[in-house]
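dude i think i finally got it to work??
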Amino acid sequence: MTVPILVRFCYLQGMSRPPRRAWRIRPLGGLLLALLALVLPSESHAQATPREQLTVGITQFPSTFNPMIDAMVAKSYILGMARRPMMAFDKDWKLVCMMCTEIPTFENGRAKLETLPDGKKGVALRVTIDPAARWGDGKPITAADVIFTWEVGKNPMSGISSAEGFRRILKIDTIDEKTFVIHVDRVTFDYNHMTGFDILPAHLERAAFADPAQYKNKTLYDTDTTNPGLYAGPYRITEVVRGSHVVLDENPNWWGKKPGFKRIVVRVIENTAALETNILSGGIDYIAGELGLSLDQALAFEKRQGKKFNIVYKPGLIYEHIDLNLDNPVLADKRVRHALLYALDRQAIDKKLFDGKQAVANSFVNPLDWMYDKDDKTYPYDPARAAALLDDAGWRKGAGGMRSKNGAALQFEINSTAGNRSRELVEQVLQSQWRAAGIDVKIRNEPARVLFGDTLRMRRFPAMAMFAWVSSPENVPRATLRSDEIPSAANNYAGQNYMGFKNAEADKLIDSIEVELDKEARRALWYKLQAVYAEELPVLPLYVRSDAFIMPLWLKGVEPTGHQYPSTLWVENWRAAN
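look at this
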């Protein structure tokens, strides 16, 4: 969860990683009609010949197509084919240029320390945009676009997901049309990571930004989504049917390697059982690992159909968890939060649902990351400890075994994304285990675009929200844990601290980690932050996940990354084998 010098997002993942909709019993005829509609090719699907078109299935539809609003995996997956960030981490977890010519470093002279008026040290980064880079309407991508993006990012009312990196920029100097110098107010260990700087087309978006508070509603990415000038990737979005599919055609103004397909159709099938049906029927060619089947479903699918598909499992920086709304007076009691986790047998969930292949999470830091503390405090299944904590907090068991206090039942609601069979099973197991502890939990799921577009962003979940974060290597959790990143009406619901977590020590550690350049000293700070997290427990960790990419045997060139930057950022390498 890093936000280097310039904004890093942790992406919300809602499906196979972050699941979906609760099952409803329907008349058989209605179900058959629904499945039939899902497997019939769309009108767009039929327009291209075989092997000129690739149809991909994912489980969520984006709440917006604006790259800076609502950090969501579904959006980053689709935009990965139609846009390019300035920089990104590749499949080897190496920082690479995607729109720039060279990453600025102190060694190559593109990064320089500078003394600020207050005597502190800042850094100046000289960045050059690829000379050939241009928008889908043919307009060059220039330093003016960079400056406009900064203006949007730093405005407190723009409603972007993470603004801190933009606020740290003191000024941007234009050297020429393609070269600019960014002056940042501090020196961080990731001083040159412009991984969250998603450039906006100033010639199109400036009018929509005339009233910053209304930008989220007026951005052309949602009001004129098929405008070619919004895109700068191998493909551009040419058709959008909300909740159904997105069509991407070759971008004639793409300056890089020619892609292997003329058209890519991304079909959104929120029900994962229907997702399986579609790949078997030919309704889709490929189930994306970033937002497809969960591990247990993929393992079962492989046993049945493995010889017909190329199935790749990729462990990643994916953290399945439950955010707790700390404004809930019951959850504000740390004893209750601890008891909720002690009451869960997460090892049994992993063994029974995931064949022991989905490790229990103990922290927001993934064991794959170098700063993970394996000796941090853990919460093993301990129903006796859970009961003692609840008793101490005044929540006593009644005649029916359920707990109450002063006549009020110990009752919560859990929200999640609808339609993912695996997550729904997990919710049912959690519900059962908590009931055994005397805690009544109701399940209420909703479509991902609703959960991430409004419920989480506006903190409308009353108690619990289960989803996943997918992050980049050594990602500092400023946007998700720092006190000033709590979304509210005052900041137009920017920030990703959906729990409402406020902790002065955590704030100080986050600030200290960012500016500590010595790796071992930084490790010690990371360990302390993990200890605070484990003790305060604003979130209930569940497990760390692997992604399952289910591809046709003829599809080549897809390279999973294992972090927040999706495989689609290298979609021009995808091709159909002869």
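Residues 1-11, 14-48 have pLDDT under 50 and may be disordered.
im so relieved honestly
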